[in-house]
Amino acid sequence: MKTSPVLLVVALVVGLTGYRTVSGSVPGNCCTDTSRKPVAILTVTVAKPMTILTIRDTAASAVDISRVLARNYGELFTFIHQKGLKPGKVTAIYPSYQPAFAVVEAAIEIDSIPGQVTGRIKIDKIVGGDVVVVHYQGPYEQIRIAYTAIEKWLKREQREVRGSPFEVYLNDAVMVRDPFELRTDVCQLIK
């Protein structure tokens, strides 16, 4: 498997802790410009709870995830528009992920709870609390480095997870031409 070098900057924000730089490599060939590297900055913070609308679905592969999410976000945004709701953060929750199969929930934060939901759409909440966040900038195909940074931090700090990891999309892949400009917060609530 071909690997490309990746610069991973880990900034632990717990009080006044400093910055650490960790170099590594990740599999992939998504990008032909090997001089450019994704960036991942890890912080520990407190998240506010979010009320969300979700659609739970499955994807047959990592490649299939974007197609499944796009279809489900379309359904969620249509519902939000019909109900006159104000959308907030666009997220994806990963209750179960294997390279050959994923359970994924397309989720959109909403400003108020609609009277009734229909079909596959459910109302849920992402609880607030302590959270490890990796501010990732780069191609989705290399986002695994963000999850690896969280896993290493959890092990080093001897912390336990609370719930499933989720991603918050800070810009729109349809509007961003350069995959190295995509920004995603990868989040894991902790005990």
Low-pLDDT segments: 1-30
- Amino-to-carboxy terminus distance: 36 Å
SS strand fraction: 35-45%
Shape: globular
The radius of gyration is: 17 Å
Sheet with most strands: strand arrangement: 3-8-10-9-5-6-4-7
How would you sum up this structure, described in words?
There is one protein chain. The chain has 191 residues and is of the alpha+beta class. It has two domains: 102 residues, no CATH class; 77 residues, Alpha-Beta Plaits, CATH 3.30.70. The radius of gyration is 17 Å and the shape is globular.
List the helices and strands and how they pair.
Blueprint: E1 3-11, E2 19-27, E3 39-47, E4 50-59, H1 62-83, E5 87-98, E6 101-110, E7 122-126, E8 129-137, H2 144-157, E9 166-169, E10 183-189
Antiparallel strand pairs: 1-2, 3-8, 4-6, 4-7, 5-6, 5-9, 8-10, 9-10
Provide keyphrases for this structure.
single chain; 191 residues; alpha+beta; Alpha-Beta Plaits; 2 domains; eight-stranded antiparallel sheet; 2 helices; 10 strands; 19% helix; disordered N terminus
Please sum up the structure shown:
This protein has 191 residues and is α+β, with helices and mostly antiparallel strands. It contains two helices and ten strands; from the N terminus they run E-E-E-E-H-E-E-E-E-H-E-E. A hairpin with a 2-residue loop joins strand 5 (87-98) and strand 6 (101-110).
